[in-house]
Q: What sequence folds into this?
């Protein structure tokens, strides 16, 4: 057993720094509310060191407090998850293991007009400072945009000699995405093309589990960055080459 | 303007402008021979077209659908003719069109009558916008002393216009001079402008004319209360560039994000479409005295800010030429750049300062828009706050015009209310503490900063020469910008570009050309 607590300037003092805003106007009452609220969170020796009005109805506080809560460090268990490669990692992995550029094609299919997901993964700019696959020197990325028919996506994937196909689905009303994704896999299988491509589904309500059930190689949900998709494709291609 | 701190060669600057003009000139030839569905929808809106049908298709889009391949004749005459033939006001005609009236098959009124009616509609558009300009100038004069230099620019983005209002009013009280309402992701790729107030968006709020009106009113109210004119910003980019410009002109927006090439490079919108659209959008912005903000910061979030600094300068030159060709005076050109060098880089601050000072000296009248660090912001909010201080320092010491405030929680979440306050507090401390610093310093001759600025200017010139040699269309196709290749006939929106017919008629376009003294 190894009990630990936050460290301020003495072992086990339990010192914590907090900052938050309360939706009340600044004044003695607001400060007292911040103190009592922090105590309610379980802190003692609470001190409001700064209270600043943000507008007539909001006040920002910086607060210090001490906690008696401790945790047994020996009982902490974490799952060692493999970190996805970053932009540079993905490119050098492709260069080293695949030794050619890989081609990725993607679209938001069916009636769905929301390109936000596919753009975040494929477009140059990417999102949240994570470059899109278009920016990867070792990836040729084709973003077909929205409202692309499954048939057209498959035809273009063959034409562009794509290694991977990304299908984005944002709208999930009445399970329209399930029908559309199922239809996509059926078409690929009917044309005998399923094993030729790595096929991925993505969207805010797509899970890896759902995608696997529908016959995709993987599914990517909310919070996915381009490098997650890039890592998966590169590793999967190497895996396929080994077989 | 003070004398040059960087000792830049004025002849080199003139030469860079000269090549930039050579780059944009052939594009102008293309622009003058073409129109687009968005230019025509814009014209219709200026004439009074508005509203939606039962399927939420905007009336201007319905009219374009009716015209089919006759868009190249200009949509204005069809709309004006319908007003005359039906004897209706614009709003009554809009309802008829929303209910299915096809205006492409009506008999023609006398052309003199059409021209007379056109003059009347031009007049009513013109007076509304001129009144907006007058009102803004009056308020800016009245509240002149309360604004910061540079202007402090804050962003709100909740997706819900009514929630945005609360945050925007809060931000104004905290000290913002400028409020931008970020658009929902993906709006730039819609080939229509949604209608009415909206309460749902992804990472931002739809730009609609009603949303503009709601926010304008809210900012005017809070402005009167705190004794300040709060400027409102939106995004005049994407497939509806000029339409959004007109909505902004009508609802008295004060600034618009508006770049001549951003859509092509970063949103994969067709280049021909973009070039035609950007010109009209800038003409409208010029007429409404709306300050544009260009998007050079985007070059630095996708490429290395030290190595590719010259692409920013080159793009500023090109944006400037395109703006001049739209009749825009330099005082409305908020040319963009950003503080995006790796904070681990030795002397990074000096290189950033050289770049900012160089932009200041090359574009002395432009209210430069300076963007904060985003690329190297991490979860370490304390480090981020320190970086923002250095950024603010450069903004003040190089006399930037518009300071987009850095958020210490950039890269973590959309700003909390306190994050905006902390951003303003940081900037105000720096602005006040070094109020006259810029006038009190000189740069060492041939020192690190002077040398850096000269190098970047030289690199920009050779880059511009390369573009000029290939031609801008080819240069974009051949990956010269932002490390992305955009084929001439690729991207979105090319199907909305039409060659103008001999009889092309657009009284609004001609009116703006006259007002802005373009050719």
A:
């Amino acid at each position: 057993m190894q009990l630990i607590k936050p460290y301020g300037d003495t072992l086990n003092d339990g010192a914590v720094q907090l900052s938050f805003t309360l939706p009340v106007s600044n004044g003695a009452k607001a400060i007292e509310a911040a103190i009592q609220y922090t105590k309610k969170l379980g802190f003692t020796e609470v001190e409001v060191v700064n209270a600043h009005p943000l507008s007539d109805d909001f006040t920002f506080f910086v607060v210090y407090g001490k906690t008696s809560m401790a945790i047994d460090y020996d009982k902490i268990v974490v799952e060692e998850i493999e970190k996805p490669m970053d932009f540079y990692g993905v490119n050098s992995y492709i260069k080293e293991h695949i030794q050619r550029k890989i081609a990725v094609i993607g679209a938001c299919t069916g009636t769905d007009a929301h390109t936000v997901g596919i753009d975040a993964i494929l477009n140059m700019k990417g999102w949240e400072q994570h470059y899109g696959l278009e920016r990867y020197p070792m990836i040729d990325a084709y973003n077909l945009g929205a409202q692309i028919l499954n048939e057209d996506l498959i035809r273009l994937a063959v034409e562009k000699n794509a290694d991977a196909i990304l299908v984005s689905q944002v709208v999930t009303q009445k399970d329209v995405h399930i029908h559309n994704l199922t239809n996509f896999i059926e078409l690929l299988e009917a044309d005998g093309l399923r094993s030729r491509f790595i096929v991925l589904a993505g969207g805010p309500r797509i899970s890896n589990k759902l995608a696997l059930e529908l016959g995709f190689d993987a599914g990517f949900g909310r919070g996915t960055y381009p490098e997650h998709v890039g890592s998966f494709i590169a590793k999967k291609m190497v895996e396929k080459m080994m077989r | 303007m003070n004398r040059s701190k960087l000792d830049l060669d004025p002849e080199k600057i003139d030469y860079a402008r000269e090549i930039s003009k050579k780059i944009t000139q052939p594009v102008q030839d293309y622009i003058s021979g073409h129109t687009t569905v968005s230019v025509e929808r814009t014209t219709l809106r200026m004439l009074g077209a508005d509203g939606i049908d039962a399927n939420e298709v905007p009336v201007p889009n319905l009219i374009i659908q009716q015209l089919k391949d006759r868009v190249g004749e200009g949509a204005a005459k069809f709309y004006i003719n319908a007003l005359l033939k039906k004897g209706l006001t614009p709003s009554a005609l809009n309802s008829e069109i929303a209910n299915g009236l096809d205006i492409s098959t009506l008999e023609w009124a006398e052309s003199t009558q059409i021209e007379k009616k056109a003059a009347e509609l031009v007049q009513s558009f013109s007076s509304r916008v001129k009144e907006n300009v007058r009102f803004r100038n009056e308020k800016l004069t009245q509240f002149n002393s309360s604004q910061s230099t540079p202007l402090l620019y804050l962003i709100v983005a909740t997706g819900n216009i009514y929630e945005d209002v609360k945050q925007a009013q809060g931000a104004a009280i905290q000290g913002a001079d400028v409020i931008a309402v970020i658009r929902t992701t993906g709006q730039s790729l819609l080939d229509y402008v949604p209608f009415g107030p909206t309460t749902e968006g992804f990472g931002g709020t739809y730009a609609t004319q009603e949303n503009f009106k709601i926010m304008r009113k809210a900012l005017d109210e809070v402005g009167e209360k705190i004794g300040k004119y709060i400027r409102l910003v939106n995004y005049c980019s994407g497939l509806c560039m000029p339409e959004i410009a007109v909505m902004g002109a009508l609802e008295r927006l004060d600034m618009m994000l508006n770049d001549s090439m951003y859509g092509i490079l970063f949103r994969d919108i067709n280049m021909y479409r973009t070039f035609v659209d950007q010109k009209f959008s800038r003409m409208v912005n010029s007429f409404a005295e709306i300050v544009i903000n260009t998007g050079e910061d985007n070059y630095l979030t996708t490429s290395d800010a030290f190595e590719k600094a010259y692409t920013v300068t080159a793009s500023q030159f090109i944006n400037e030429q395109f703006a001049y060709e739209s009749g825009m005076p330099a005082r409305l050109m908020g040319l963009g750049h950003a503080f995006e060098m790796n904070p681990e880089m030795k002397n990074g601050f000096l290189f950033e300062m050289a770049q900012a000072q160089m932009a200041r000296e090359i574009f002395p009248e432009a209210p430069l828009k300076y963007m904060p660090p985003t690329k190297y912001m991490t979860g370490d909010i304390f480090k981020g706050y320190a970086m923002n201080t250095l950024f603010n320092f450069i903004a003040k010491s190089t006399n930037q015009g518009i300071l987009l405030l850095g958020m210490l929680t950039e890269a973590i979440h959309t700003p909390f209310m306190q994050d905006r306050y902390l951003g303003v507090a940081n900037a105000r401390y720096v602005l006040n503490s070094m109020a006259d610093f810029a006038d009190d310093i000189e740069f060492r001759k041939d020192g690190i900063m002077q040398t850096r600025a000269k190098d970047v200017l030289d690199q920009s010139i050779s880059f511009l020469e390369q573009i000029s040699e290939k031609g801008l269309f080819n240069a974009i196709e051949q990956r010269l910008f932002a490390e992305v290749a955009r084929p001439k006939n690729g991207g979105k929106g090319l199907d909305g570009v039409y060659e103008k017919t001999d009889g092309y008629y657009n009284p609004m376009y001609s009116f703006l050309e006259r007002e802005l003294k373009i050719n």
In short: The longest strand of chain A covers residues 43-55. The interface with chain B takes residues 19-21, 52, 54-56, 58, 60, 114-116, 119-120, 123-125, 128-129, 131, 134-135, 143, 145-146 of chain A (CB under 8 Å). The mean pLDDT of chain A is 91.
